[in-house]
Amino acid sequence: MISGAKNAVLPVLSATLINKGISRIINCPDISDVRTTMDILKDLGCKVKFIKKSPGNIIEVDATNVNKSKIEASKACLCRSSVTFLGALTARLKEAEVAYPGGCTIGERPIDIHETAMREMGIETTLNNTHIKTKVFRTDCNTEPTKNIYLKFPSVGATENAMLAAAGLEESVIIYGAATEPEILCLGNYLKELGAKIQGLGTGCIKIKGQKDYAKENLIFKIIPDRIEASTYFITAAAVGDGISVHGCIPAHCKETLDILRTMGCNIKEHKYKYDGQEQSVIEISDGAIRKKLKSPGVIIADAYPSFPTDAQSLILPLLAVAKGETYVIDKIFPKRFKAAEELMKTGAKIKHTESGIHITGRNHLKGNILYSYDLRGGASMIIAGLLAHGQTSVYDEDYIKRGYDGLTEKIRALGGDITECHVDP
Ligand code: EPZ
Q1: pLDDT band for position 78 (50/70/90)?
Q2: What are the b/e assignments for 125-153, b being 16+ CB within 10 Å?
Q3: Residues of the chain with pLDDT > 70: what percent?
Q4: Rounded CA gap, 17 and 284, in Å?
Q5: What is the CATH number of the domain that holds 305?
Q6: What is the mean pLDDT of residues 281-297?
Q7: Residues taking part in catalysis
Q8: Are residues 245 and 113 in the same domain?
Q9: Å from CA of 156 to ligand 1 middle
Q10: For the chain, what is the mean pLDDT?
Q11: Which of 3, 80, 112, 116 best tests ligand 1's pocket when mutated (most atoms within 8 Å of CB)?
């Protein structure tokens, strides 16, 4: 069963700060980025509870008494999504000081688009070497009933920060050039449950009419399934499975990944059924690499949603490394996100860097080796490579993997994969 989406639950947890009441967020994954975000909420004065439940854990946040507007580097540096506390604290306390965020080393991760969005909303924004600070000055003579902000790139995080800050302003804000990922819609739907008036979610133009403050006594909200986790298991099923069903995903959110696997020759069927009174989807994948030589899709270009996701780019590399033919892979979101490709070469994968990305020549098989995770999706990619390769593979630095996958080894073992977690003393 696919867990709740990491990249949806994290901004929604930031958003719970805006509610002077209790938010019960359901279908949360138990991953270290969530635990880090819970710690930050507690530091800011919230009461936070993690209630284990299967399927779909619950996180209860009581943000009645938020009493701090500053987040130190010691916490902010642990994950990229800490940056969304900037918008949430600005909405709640009308000021914020957040240390620069951490995040996977997958390329440049500036926050200039976040900064510009705050300024274009009329929020005073200053940066020093370590923190970004915001302050909202209320001027009764506010002449502009609507603030227009223009994102130079559909940044997911900057769109989220702009939405969060705008939710705390009384004038309308229109975000042009907004990201359209499903995680953006999930955050927007939480803000609408809170009481913000939002139009245009899922389009590049989002209009938000916020209010000074919010107080929902007991707001219950469900997180969408994780489309990247689902894509991880689709690719694993295509690589080493023989008729695997993946439950609890939203197929429409994973269309590009499923289309690529179909192009490579997999047989993919979608069924629907009722579970717990709700309609559920199951994706059945057969005719994978176990049964026949899959063929190269030719070119994969990772780009903003609804294109093939950058987060699935590392994941599909092992499958391309044993497909018949040559594949060019370009990542327009993080052009240098190919550390996983370099690590994959240790298994005998025939990969070379090109001017705009990488070129992969499919081989008969990969051979097991000692591999390292350098980021979350790269680590998961090495596990897929290990399942595909002949012989044993050890993947080090599983902490990266635990940042974003809830029960990965258990789920792969349930699929029949021979995988064991071992702790090696440093
Ligand atoms: C989010 O990161 C996700 N993380 C990433 O997932 C995902 O890869 C990325 O969106 C793209 O989909 C979370 O949601 C926590 P961006 P984010 O801002 O918001 C440039 C995973 O594995 N940019 O959309 O940081 C940036 O350098 C992680 O789950 C600026 O130039 O991504 C990049 O090239 C990895 N200035 C591009 O935009 C800015 O101010 C996209 O970044 C912000 C971004």
Answers
A1: confident
A2: beeeeebbbbbbeeeeeeeeeebebebee
A3: 98
A4: 39
A5: 3.65.10.10
A6: 90
A7: 104
A8: no
A9: 6
A10: 93
A11: 80
Q: What is the rounded CA–CA span in Å between residue 145 and residue 172?
A: 6
Residues 117 and 237 in one domain: no
Domain interval for residue 365: 227-414
Q: Is 403 in the pocket of ligand 1 (CB under 6 A)?
A: no
Looking at residue 44, what is its pLDDT? 96
310 plus 237 within the same structural domain: yes
The alpha carbon of 107 and the centre of ligand 1 are apart by a number of angstroms equal to: 9
Cα 42 to middle of ligand 1, angstroms: 25
User: Has residue 140 got a pLDDT over 70?
Assistant: no
- Supply the pLDDT for residue 79: 84
- Domain shared by 70 and 185, yes or no: yes
Residue 424 lies in a domain: no
Which of 204, 222, 240 corresponds to the end of one domain? 222
Instruction: Provide mean pLDDT across the span 178-196.
Output: 98
**Of 222, 239, 259, which closes a domain?**
222
Answer whether residue 425 is part of any domain: no
Ligand 1 site, residue 157, Cβ cutoff 6 A: yes
DSSP state of 212: S
Q: Which of 289, 291, 311 is nearest to 366 (CA)?
A: 289
> Is 426 contained in some domain?
no
The response to whether residue 156 sits with its C-beta less than 6 Å from ligand 1 reads: yes
Question: For ligand 1, atom 14, which residue shows the shortest CA distance?
Answer: 7
Q: Are residues 15 and 124 in the same domain?
A: yes
Distance CA 124, CA 69 (A): 15
Q: Which residues contact 351 (CB under 8 A, 6 or more apart)?
A: 317, 321, 341, 342, 344, 345, 358, 359, 360, 361
- Within a domain: residue 420? no
Distance 2 CA to ligand 1 centre (A): 22
Length reported for the chain: 426
Q: Are residues 313 and 290 in the same domain?
A: yes
Round to whole Å and give the CA distance between 381 and 319. 10
For the Cβ of 3 lying below 6 angstroms from any atom of ligand 1, the answer is no
Torsions phi, psi for 234 (to 5 deg): -60, -45
Say if residue 309 is in the same domain as residue 160.
no
The rounded Å distance from CA 109 to ligand 1 centre is 7
Please state the rounded mean pLDDT for residues 354-362.
96
- If one counts the domains in the chain, the total is 2
- Residue nearest to ligand 1 atom 10, measured at CA: 156
Residues 211 and 232 in one domain: no
Q: List CB contacts of 64: < 8 A, sequence separation 6 or more.
A: 20, 21, 22
